[in-house]
Amino acid sequence: MFLTFIETREGKIKKSSLEALSEAKRRATDLGTDVGAALIGKDVDCLDPELFSYGAAKVFLLEHAELAQYSTQGFAGALQGLVKEMAPEAVFFAATAMGKDLAPRLAAKLGVGLASDCTAIAVKDGKLEFTRPIYAGKAFLTFRLKSTPQIATLRPNVFAAAPAGNAAGEVVKKAVSVQDGAIKGRVVELIKESGAELDVTEADVIVSGGRGMKGPENFALLKELSAVIPRSAVGASRSAVDSGWIGHQHQVGQTGKTVSPGLYLAFGISGAIQHLAGMSSSKVIVAVNKDAEAPIFKVADYGIVGDLFQVVPALKEEFKKLFAER
Amino acid sequence: MNILVFVKRVPDTESKIRINRETHAVVEDGLNFVISPNDEYAVEEALRLREAKGGQVTVLSVGAAEALVILKKGLAMGADEAVLIKDELKETYDGLRVARMIARTVEKRYPQFDLLLFGKQSVGADNAQVPSMVAEMLGLPQANVVTKLEIDGPSGTAHREIEGAMEKVVFSLPAVVSAQKGLNEPRYETLKGIMAAKKKVIPVVTLEDLGLTRDEVAPQVEIVALETPAARQAGKIIPGTPEEAARELARLLRHEAKVI
Question: B171 and A186: CB-CB below 8 Å?
C-alpha cells in the first residue's frame, strides 16, 4: 500500500494533497499495489467521497479530540500508529508548510530517510526514484532511498491531480490514543494576512515585481492585476522585499520560495541568478522590463521591452476581457 | 538561557552551480562559501535572547574542517562558544544522518539546554529535514519557519509561516525552533568580535567521540544522478505600443501557450 497524508485547512482538502494522492495512485499502480488516504483530526469523516475518486481504495480516519488543532507531535504519532499497522511501502505528503513540518518527524520516528520536495517520481527496476531540485533549482538530484517505508513530500503544483475513476472504497476508522503530555506544542491560532489567501507556492499564476516597481505603493498595480486573474498571487524579487516594499512571504528565489506556476509574469525584475533559480521551473515566463539587456529575457517565453507602468494597466484590461469571454 | 544554534556552510546565492557528473558532486572550485542565510537569522535570534535574558550561546556545525570559517563568523557575531561536529563525508543530501549526529551531540555534551535554533532549511540541499528530526530524536516540541519568537519562562510562542497565513504555536521548553527571513535583521560582525573570535579554540567532535556506529550514520540516500537543468530558451519579444503589446501577449497566453 501507498499511504497519502491528506491535509485539510478549515474543513477543506488541500488541492496539493489530491496531487500527492494522484501520484501515489500512479506509482502504486506501477508496482501493483493500492493506495490508502489518511485523514487526521476531529469530525473529518464528511470528506471521504472525493478521495475515492482520486484513487484511494481505503480512507483511514484517525480522529481524536486532541487532534482538533494541528500539532506536529499529535499528528506524527497518529501516523506512526497507522504505518506500524499497515506497513505501507511508501508514505506521501504534499510539500506544504504542514507536510514539511510533519514528514521529517514521522521519518525520524521510523528511523528512515526522507525525499523532500520532489518534482518527479518514477519506478525503475521495481524501486522508486525521486527527483528534487537543490540550490532552489540550480541543479536536480535523482536518488533512491534505502529504507522502507519510502517517505516523500511532493511539491505543490507539479504533479497532476487526476481522478482515477474509482467510484467507491472503504472507510476505516482507526482508534488513536494520545498520551497525556505527549503533545508539548500546538497551534493555538491562525493569523490571516488580509487579501492574500493564496500563497505563491500554490498559485497557478504569479504576478511578480522587482526593483523596477520603484516603490511600495506601486505593488497596488500588481495586486489589481492579480485580482482579475483566477488562482493568482503576487510575488516579488529579493531586492523589492529587502527594500521593504512587500512582505518577505511574497519573495521568490533562492532565499525565498521556489515556485512552479503555470504562468510567471515578471515586471521590473532584472533576473538575478538567485531569482531565476526560484522560478525557472514555471511553465511559461513573461518578462516586462525597460532594459532590453536584462537577463530575465533569456529565460522568458514572451517579453515586452517597455514601461511596466503602461503595460500593467493595459494587460489588466486585456485579461478582464479574456476572462469575461469564458 | 542555554541556546545551541546549528549552522551550515553553503555556496552563496549568487553562485552558479556546476556539477561533476562522475562523482555526483557540486564543483567547489571558484565558489564563495558562506553561512547559510537562514542560519544567520537563528544566530541573531540566539544573541538577542541572550542579551534579554542572559545565558550562553553555542554555535555548532556538522561538516568538514572548512566549516570552521562559518563557526568563526558565529563567534565574531557574538556567540560564546563554537563546536565542529566532524563529518568525513561530503554532502549526502540525507537529513537523517545529520540529525542523528546533532541529537547525539546534544545528549552527550549538553545535558542542560533551553533552545535549539536552526535555519528553516539550508540554502543548498533545501531539505528542511534536520530540525524536525532532531526534535523527534530528543522528544522536543518544534516550531518551524518562524518569523516571530517570544520566550516567557518555561514556554515559548512562535509565529510560523504557512500558505497565506501564520500559525501561532505555543510550546514548552526545551524546544526546537527553525528561523525564517523576517524573524530579525542579522548583525554584522564587529572588528572587536572578529579579533576575539580569532583567539577562541573551536573543539572538534568526531563520530567516534559520539559513539555513533557506521550503520547509524550510513546515508539512506543513494544518488542516481545529479544534473543541472536544461537552459530555457529565450522566446519572442512582442513589439508595438504598450496597448498593442498587451493585447498580443494576452492572445498568445490564451491561444498559443494556453496557460490562461
Answer: yes
